[in-house]
Amino acid sequence: MDKLRVYIGWDSREDIAYQVAKQSLEKHASIPVEVVPIKLDDLVEQGLYTREIDPLASTEFTYSRFLVPHLAGYDGWAIFVDCDFLFFGDVAELQEYMDPKYAVLCVQHDYKPKETTKMDGVPQSAYPRKNWSSFMLMNCGHPSTKQLTPELVNRESGAYLHRMQWAQDDEIGALPTGWNWLEGWYDKPAQGYPQAVHHTRGGPWFKEWQDVDYAAEWLAEAAEYEAKTGTKA
After folding, report:
1. CA distances from 76 to 6, 98, 140, 210, 231 (A)
2. Which of 31, 46, 56, 128 is 20 to 30 Å apart from 96, CA to CA?
3. Distance CA 38, CA 60 (A)
């Protein structure tokens, strides 16, 4: 592959989260990567996204993430990742999991959130395969993945999309837990870092979420981004 394409969900309320996810991913990558934000307004403008606003959607990319295969031309491999991630691992390692028999690979959490709300007061809901779709290694040319047309993504329910009902069960591969390490759910490793920390409950860009695991590392990454770009979150 020329570059590993990585699509990161972007939310207008959390630009700094996107920037930190992007910067930390690129910093640790030993292969060329192309990072693309999934911005809802752009997709609407292009006519690719026509869904009504869903009051239960916790981010602007709740559904648009499933447009990744279309955006990638239904060809090759691509990653989708939520913006509330902090990377310590090298995405080059994911190449060993790119088995063509799989439509998609993810960390297959058995996750039942303890909190009733998350982030900025958004309700926390529990459903089968929760958080599987927050980090997806997608085989964009796979017949099942090719079903994710803009028409289907705009039409189908959130349950159908997020539970990956568009793929057969044996077409959903497993990634190591470290690639979607749910802060507040998994125990910190005795040494080293997970490959990708997911601040799914709320991240250090919210003042009330600065006591979470790996907050210091996130804040340091954000400070580095702000110093480099002259911006202030």
Report:
1. 12, 10, 6, 38, 35
2. 128
3. 9
| Cβ 145 vs Cβ 69: under 8 Å | yes
- Contact, 20 vs 222, CB < 8 A? yes
CA distance linking residue 38 with residue 22, whole number of Å? 12
Strand pairing category for 33-38 and 104-106: unpaired
Is the separation of the CB atoms in 210 and 196 below 8 Å?
Answer: no
Distance CA 80, CA 78 (A): 7
- pLDDT, average across residues 118-135: 70
Phi, psi of 11 (to 5 degrees): -130, 135
Nearest Cα neighbor of 9 from 95, 71, 52, 54 is 71
Helix (H) or strand (E) holding 219: helix 215-229
Distance between CA atoms of residues 153 and 177, nearest Å: 27
- The SS3 call for residue 197 is strand
Least confidently predicted of 28-32, 74-78, 188-192: 188-192
Contact between residue 37 and residue 18 where contact means Cβ atoms under 8 Å apart: yes
Residues 6+ apart with CB under 8 A from 216: none
The first and second tokens of residue 99, run together, are 């088995």
Alpha-carbon distance of 179 to 186, in angstroms, equals 12
Residue 42 pLDDT more than 90?
yes
Phi, psi of 182 (to 5 degrees): -80, 110
